[in-house]
Amino acid sequence: MEDGKYSKELNVAVRVVHMACSLCEKVQKQLLSTNSDQVKSKDDDSLVTVADWSVQATVSWMLKKAFGSQNISIVAEEDIQTLCKSESQSLLAMVVSAVNISLAEAPRFGLHGPEKPLSASEILEAISQCNSRGGPLGQHWVLDPVDGTLGFVRGDQYAVALAMIENGEVVMGVLGCPNYSVKDDGLNKYTQENPVMSKISSGEVGCVMYTRKGSGKAWMQPLIHRDETFEWPNSAKLVQVSSVDDPTLATFCEPVEKTNSNHSFAAGVASTVGLRNKPLRVYSMVKYAAIARGEAEIYMRFARAGYKEKIWDHAAGVLLVQEAGGVVTDAGGRPLDFSRGIYLEGLDRGIIACSGIKLHDKIIGAVYASWESSNLASSQKANNSHLRIHPSFTHTLKKKEKKVCAFQIPVTKLSTRSFRFSIISMIEKPTNLKTVITL
Ligand SMILES: Nc1ncnc2c1ncn2[C@@H]1O[C@H](COP(=O)(O)OS(=O)(=O)O)[C@@H](OP(=O)(O)O)[C@H]1O
Ligand SMILES: [Mg+2]
Ligand SMILES: [Mg+2]
Ligand SMILES: [Mg+2]
Asked: For this UniProt entry, which segments traverse the membrane (predicted)?
């Protein structure tokens, strides 16, 4: 790891993510072999497991140990509501055990754990202290303890994602992918058709990827396994996005579940652009990892209307793709905004991550061409209070009082009539609009 800004933070974060991956591997193995009661449903019907809480507690405790509990703000996914219920005693006991086993392993990763095992209340405190809401000022750690919990429970891909946001920008990202082999083409071998258990027994190792904003570099390390005689520093190699910019050769990734992304809209975009390969459906932020490693070229994600993407599902992955040479924006071509709390507020329709600008431009253009006729358009319009601007057609209008209004302009193929109707909203309140564009 190179010296520079955030080098201490990055160094600790990488090691802590290694610890978290090791924890997850044990819990996943146990979960798949014993079918025990380690999985719960949340109010929104999504899943949470012993691993999610245990990783959050472990990372929270280790970061506070390294940087001081007063100085640290952590935004993370999980809370302790379910764990505190009287019927959750055995679940809490499993979390306490997993956390203490993991913390006891800290020296293997060149870190210091606690002198004695943590109590249940200390662990609950560590989890619940990750309740920061982020925002535009200061430093905030952002943690998704297990991203792709569904994949985790199904014995498939998942990730541990830790990032840091400073003054609203992602400045550091670490992504642990325990079932994504460090070997080339690690993903294609472990898709749904190839259960991950074969990987565990074959002894192949997953990876931890990391980067720092502005470095123009993204690194990958192999995971460390218990039986290995190993001492830090771990070896790391640089990764880079793919150089493929011909759509007919490109591979696109998308979420596995239709509820998390509209597959048919993505298929329409893919066909408009001329993508030929079948979509690679992969759980979790491993999709970003695949783009950063050059094993896929495009990641499209179009959530259903009303769903607001959360910063912990994207921060680490977005920076990895960008620093490995790729481009990530919303579907209107604008950068994702990590400065507005726990949600990616103002996100325009979806997220597009690409290995290069050429493919990215084509995808954004195809989204515009397909949008008005899609079901997604009518369902999301009601929810869109913000502006959609095609990057190449952004017109700004300076008003006397120096406020800037911007209009959505459609892609070239749309008619003049649809141009008029497509001026649908403004950055400022409608009362700020004094000039009407007439064609
Ligand atoms: N309805 C809906 N739409 C969009 N996104 C949603 C939705 N519900 C949940 N989530 C978040 O998606 C995270 C999992 O994303 P994946 O890309 O792994 O999806 S999939 O499982 O492959 O379908 C998942 O992250 P984890 O909870 O950490 O697994 C959620 O934060
Ligand atoms: Mg979740
Ligand atoms: Mg997640
Ligand atoms: Mg999660």
From this structure: none
Identify the nearest ligand to the CA of 263 by its number: 1
Task: Report, in this order, helix, strand and coil percent for the chain, each rounded to 5.
Answer: 40, 20, 45
Q: Which of 345, 347, 316, 315 is CA-nearest to residue 333?
A: 347
Output the residue whose Cα is nearest ligand 1's atom 2.
Answer: 260
pLDDT in tens, 338-395: 999 999 999 999 999 999 999 999 999 999 988 877 766 666 654 544 444 444 433 3
**In this structure, which residues have their CB less than 5 angstroms from ion ligand 4?**
77, 144, 146-147
Catalytic residue, chosen from 49, 52, 156, 251, is 52
- Domains of the chain and any CATH numbers: 7-238 (3.30.540.10), 247-382 (3.40.190.80), 385-439 (no CATH)
Active site residue 3: no
Residues with CB under 5 A from ligand 2 (ion): 46, 149
Strand-pair partners of 75: 131, 142
Contact between 212 and 172 (Cβ < 8 Å)? yes
- Pairwise CA distance, residues 310 & 256, whole Å: 18
Read off the pLDDT of residues 204-236 as tens digits, 9 standing for 90 and up: 789 999 999 999 999 999 998 766 667 777 789
Model pTM score: 0.86
The pairing of beta strand 74-76 with beta strand 47-49: unpaired
Reference 313, options 134, 76, 165, 144; nearest CA is 144
Nearest residue to 199 via CA among 32, 38, 37, 49:
32
Does the annotation count 149 as an active-site position?
A: yes
* Per-residue b or e along 279-301, where b marks 16 or more CB atoms closer than 10 Å to that residue's CB: bbbbbbbbbbbbbbbbbbbbbbb
Distances (CA, A) of 37 to 17, 25, 92, 93, 154: 25, 17, 11, 12, 14
Please name the residue that has the structure tokens 């950063």.
292
Question: What 3-state DSSP class applies to 244?
Answer: coil
Residue closest to 72 by CA, chosen among 2, 159, 165: 165
> What's the N-to-C CA distance of the chain in angstroms?
56
